[in-house]
Amino acid sequence: HLIICGGTLTAGLTGACLKQALKEADESLAKLAYTLRVDLMPGRGEPTSLSLPQLPLHPHLFHRVKDCKDFRSFGNPYDSQIQGMNVLGHSGQPVED
Questions:
Q1: 3-class SS of residue 26
Q2: What are the residue ranges in the chain where pLDDT is below 50?
Q3: How far apart are CA 96 and CA 84, in angstroms?
């Protein structure tokens, strides 16, 4: 089980650079999600709401991985139960601020 706590995309990307970064992230996440469960949380500067709590990254940003049964996009902060253990986390903004 892999939990990605922000940093999937470089903050400030626009246009063709953002499109290319999304494509590369989609390919990498799809490879991971075919072998293990992947939970993705947004971080600072990623294409979602700016203030906490952040909304999950929209699944249509990722064309390949969105159909993987072991891929889930979560909001920030993250709250889930993994093998009976409650997990709560964030991608670092409260510490950075």
A1: helix
A2: none
A3: 30
Q: Strand pairing of 71-73 and 78-82?
A: unpaired
The Cα–Cα gap between 40 and 27 comes to 14
90: closest CA among 2, 1, 6, 31? 6
Are 82 and 42 in contact by the 8 Å Cβ rule? The answer is: no
Tokens of 33: 């999600």
The C-alpha atoms of residue 5 and residue 7 are separated, in whole angstroms, by 7
**Sequence-ordered list of residues with C-beta below 8 angstroms from that of 64, at least 6 positions apart, any chain:** 26, 27, 29, 30
Rounded CA separation 90/4 (Å): 10
Beta bridge partners of 38: 2, 71
State the DSSP code for 36.
Answer: S
Tokens (6 digits) for 85 = 């253990």
pLDDT tens for each residue of 64-90: 998 899 999 999 999 999 899 999 888
